[in-house]
From TrEMBL:
Top-level division of the source organism's lineage: Bacteria
Top enzyme class: transferase
Residues of the full protein shown: 243 to 549 of 549
Name of the protein in its database record: Phosphoenolpyruvate-protein phosphotransferase
Chemical reaction(s) catalysed: L-histidyl-[protein] + phosphoenolpyruvate = N(pros)-phospho-L-histidyl-[protein] + pyruvate
GO molecular function, one term: phosphoenolpyruvate-protein phosphotransferase activity
Active site feature: C244
Localization terms from the record: Cytoplasm
Family statement drawn from the similarity comment of this UniProt entry: Belongs to the PEP-utilizing enzyme family.
Residues that bind Mg(2+): E173, D197
Cofactors demanded by this protein: Mg(2+)
Binding annotation for phosphoenolpyruvate: R44, R80, N196, D197, R207
Gene Ontology terms: biological process: phosphoenolpyruvate-dependent sugar phosphotransferase system
């Protein structure tokens, strides 16, 4: 309790960037108000139903999402649609083995191949939206059609339930989504950059392989350029662009996110105090052109150290 009270004192009056938390358990939901976070930028719904043999039904999903929204209020929760596959296999989907799971049946691909599963989750979230404002986010987007398909189902189901559509966002976790950000921006309400996967796919580095995964702890110039593309695509429509991968938790990179023009960061709650502390003193923003001109990770680090 005391630690939480002490922590709250260093929350700057006006943060230049919205700070949110990532959650994947009911316990983390319960702790959310104590973190002072203004939102839940990522709720990993695929981790909310462990040890199951079957897909959770509508009633169970409504119950869990409602519980989470209630515990987190007044923070608005961004529910990510089930991100099954890759590093998060769901036993009840019975997908069998794949030669290369990271490039396989994953995220939105699984949902579009299981329309009933997608519909049930959307219906559950719509039901909860009667009582709590929430946002819905699509994982592992790589094509426009995937966004259009979800948007269409959401609009149809919301119409049937006589409800407005909650804000719908796309995760930018593949280079394809980043390259298509201008196209996607016409169809979504917000972007959330998943740097864990975006870096994995951009650098061809397996996040699960200890021999190479270390390379994902530093920001590469290619990642910076892709992220800048997303910000540029979002700006004409004033769409929020949040970063919710692990990199958001590192205070050293704050000048980079501010310099690029990200509107929010979402991270594990334990990382928030250090980020807030870094924001207490004004952050010198590196020139955007200088950031985009960096030719290597080393040049980028040198530039950020001056900030
Ligand atoms: C990401 O890829 O950066 C992300 C936030 O999603 P996850 O780590 O759950 O794949
Ligand atoms: Mg991801």
């Amino acid at each position: 309790q005391e630690a939480l009270a002490g922590e709250a004192e260093v929350i700057p009056a006006a943060s230049p960037i919205a700070l949110g938390v990532n959650i994947s358990t009911l316990l983390e939901a319960r702790k959310t108000p104590g973190t002072g976070a203004s939102s839940v930028g990522l709720c990993r719904t695929e981790l909310l139903f462990p040890n199951r043999q079957q897909a959770p039904g509508l009633e169970r999903q409504v119950q869990i999402y409602q519980h989470i929204a209630r515990e987190c209020a007044p923070a608005v929760v961004t529910f990510r649609l089930l991100d099954a596959g890759g590093d998060k296999p769901l036993p009840w989907l019975g997908k069998g083995s794949e030669p290369n799971p990271a490039l396989g049946w994953h995220g939105i691909r699984v949902l579009l191949d299981n329309p009933q599963l997608l519909d049930t989750q959307l219906q559950a979230l719509l039901e909860v939206s009667r009582q709590y404002p929430l946002r819905i986010m699509i994982p592992m987007v790589s094509e426009l059609d995937e966004v259009l398909a979800v948007k269409d189902r959401l609009a149809t189901l919301a119409g049937q339930m006589a409800l407005p559509c909650p804000p719908l966002g796309a995760m930018v976790e593949t280079p394809s989504a980043a390259m298509l950000a201008d196209v996607l921006a016409e169809e979504v309400d917000f972007f959330s950059i998943g740097s864990n996967d975006l870096a994995q796919y951009t650098l061809a580095v397996d996040r699960e392989n200890p021999k190479v995964a270390d390379r994902l702890n530093a920001v590469s110039p290619a990642l910076v350029r892709l992220m800048a593309r997303v910000v540029d695509a979002a700006q004409p429509r004033s769409l929020p662009v949040t970063l919710c991968g692990e990199l958001a938790a590192s205070p050293d990179y704050l000048p980079l996110w501010l310099g690029l023009g990200l509107t929010g960061l979402s991270m594990q709650a334990s990382a928030l105090p250090a980020i807030r502390q870094r924001l207490v003193t004004p952050v010198a923003l590196p020139e955007r052109q200088a950031l985009l001109g960096c030719r290597s990770t080393a040049e980028l680090s040198a530039l950020l150290q001056k900030a």
